[in-house]
Amino acid sequence: xxxxxxxxxxxxxxxxxxxxxxxxxxxxxxxxxxxxxxxxxxxxxxxxxxxxxxxxxxxxxxxxxxxxxxxxxxxxxxxxxxxxxxxxxxxxxxxxxxxxxxxxxxxxxxxxxxxxxxxxxxxxxxxxxxxxxxxxxxxxxxxxxxxxxxxxxxxxxxxxxxxxxxxxxxxxxxxxxxxxxxxxxxxxxxxxxxxxxxxxxxxxxxxxxxxxxxxxxxxxxxxxxxxxxxxxxxxxxxxxxxxxxxxxxxxxxxxxxxxxxxxxxxxxxxxxxxxxxxxxxxxxxxxxxxxxxxxxxxxxxxxxxxxxxx
Length: 310
What we know:
Blueprint: E1 2-6, H1 13-22, E2 26-31, E3 49-53, H2 59-65, E4 71-74, H3 81-86, H4 88-105, E5 111-117, H5 141-156, E6 159-164, E7 166-168, H6 179-189, E8 192-195, E9 201-206, H7 207-219, H8 221-224, E10 227-231, E11 237-239, H9 240-248, E12 255-258, H10 275-278, H11 288-299
Parallel strand pairs: 1-2, 1-4, 2-3, 4-5, 5-6, 6-10, 7-9, 8-12
Antiparallel strand pairs: 9-11
Helix pairs in contact: 1-7, 4-5, 6-9, 6-11
């Protein structure tokens, strides 16, 4: 297939794009390279790879690239509550309006597979897993615009939305600001972390499993289309303090303390059911414990202060 991946040089795209090429697809990446990353250099030798440096909000570029695509994967986004709060205009124009522009310009025959976020559930009921039928209650600007983008895409039909859990794991375009990546980095480099609202729970998923989910959706598009799916590790609905305990199992001298004051800027607190996508035959292949081990090895030689979104 001919696949257009916007934001394809980002944290997820830098893992996904090489996998799509391995599957034999032709991939065009549209990215503004705002982090000056070179994470797709290995793809340059592949004749099925093409890259365009530009802004996903540029209608002229989209009009040129979209007609060639059988499938569109809009990864381009300002990801996370802190970054969206810092650039509120960008959060709206990139995370929602650029997706609406793609929907406007694309034909109904073209497939769209979009990642959103299960932070759209906001604060869930204690002990009750959020399913795709649960009410959406996004608290942050990031959650709100991503849920609006999801509705735009699903309303047009011939599309799939992935409500991703908090992603973790090593990527050629690394991010240290994601919770597992961040806490593990602090354990390795600082040996301590102060946790705000440590009882807050959320779900997690390895970045390579996210890439696998996109490929699974492409292979099973007919039976999965026009639906939203939670994508996470069913055994990893855990609190921040429980996450710290798992990291301490592998970094023995890691000390973590819960602060009695202060708030988490990303207020998500919920557990999630991933049964719907599991019923389609998708199962994650990477555990949280394995991801922590992988991060510890990576951080032995990674100390780049640019590896974040904020």
